[in-house]
Amino acid sequence: AQSVSQHNHHVILSEAASLELGCNYSYGGTVNLFWYVQYPGQHLQLLLKYFSGDPLVKGIKGFEAEFIKSKFSFNLRKPSVQWSDTAEYFCAVRYFASGGSYIPTFGRGTSLIVHP
Amino acid sequence: DADVTQTPRNRITKTGKRIMLECSQTKGHDRMYWYRQDPGLGLQLIYYSFDVKDINKGEISDGYSVSRQAQAKFSLSLESAIPNQTALYFCATSGGGGNEQFFGPGTRLTVL
């Protein structure tokens, strides 16, 4: 089975610090890559996505992610975090399965706490 | 944003009871999914459906069943609830191809 690894389970930062959350996947074929955010008590919502083209993707709220195919990675970055970025972050990979369907697989998530 | 709704939002039940969680969407998407979220485990796919006549098991389907009553409705049933099914359950939808998923607000289920 395909897997998605998020290396940082809990991250604690102070406001204005830089953020990088790691995401690696195991599938060598065609994939679509996503980062979702879940604010406390809310549902998941999309931060950014990569399908093809420029491997550096910019999302909402100042987040960006870089796809490095050779490393099977899609790391999320933000130069300066804010208290409102406190949330859980999920990396997700859609890979091509038998029958032509894209099945999404999620990582275990990274809990980010930003202190004011 | 009420494009994907789930009922109930919270439910406490007892071991052995049958429970149905419902999901409705107004996004016109063909694809619908049920996930459960447990702390530290992320989201695990229970079932998914790519159209009304298509139902597929996910990675943790044991103990669950689903029904796709219409394009807009996808229900998850626990035939005989057990305590380790206590979790947060999310419904999601997506359009064709490799598009993003849109999630409902979640149902917090507690099985005593």
Shape of chain B: globular
What's the pLDDT, averaged over the residues of chain A? Answer: 91
Rg calculated over all Cα atoms of chain B: 13 Å
Structural class of chain B: mainly beta
Short description:
The complex is a heterodimer of chains A (116) and B (112). With 116 residues, chain A is mainly beta.
Characterization of the model:
The complex is a heterodimer of chains A (116) and B (112). Chain A has strands at residues 4-5, 10-14, 19-21, 24-25, 31-38, 45-50, 56-58, 64-68, 73-78, 87-96, 102-106, 110-115. Chain A has 116 residues and is mostly beta strands. In chain A, a hairpin with a 4-residue loop joins strand 8 and strand 9. Chain A is globular. The model of chain A has no long low-confidence stretch (mean pLDDT 91). With 112 residues, chain B is mostly beta strands. Chain B has strands at residues 4-7, 10-13, 19-25, 31-38, 42-51, 54-57, 64-70, 73-78, 87-94, 101-103, 107-111. The mean pLDDT of chain B is 93. Chain A binds chain B through residues 1, 6, 9, 32, 34, 36, 42-46, 49, 51, 90, 92, 94, 101-109, and chain B through 33, 35, 40-45, 48, 50, 59, 90, 92, 97-98, 100-101, 103-106.
Set out the fold topology.
The complex is a heterodimer of chains A (116) and B (112).
Chain A: E1 4-5, E2 10-14, E3 19-21, E4 24-25, E5 31-38, E6 45-50, E7 56-58, E8 64-68, E9 73-78, E10 87-96, E11 102-106, E12 110-115
Parallel strand pairs in A: 2-12
Antiparallel strand pairs in A: 1-4, 3-9, 5-6, 5-10, 7-8, 8-9, 10-11, 10-12
Chain B: E1 4-7, E2 10-13, E3 19-25, E4 31-38, E5 42-51, E6 54-57, E7 64-70, E8 73-78, E9 87-94, E10 101-103, E11 107-111
Parallel strand pairs in B: 2-11
Antiparallel strand pairs in B: 1-3, 3-8, 4-5, 4-9, 5-6, 7-8, 9-10, 9-11
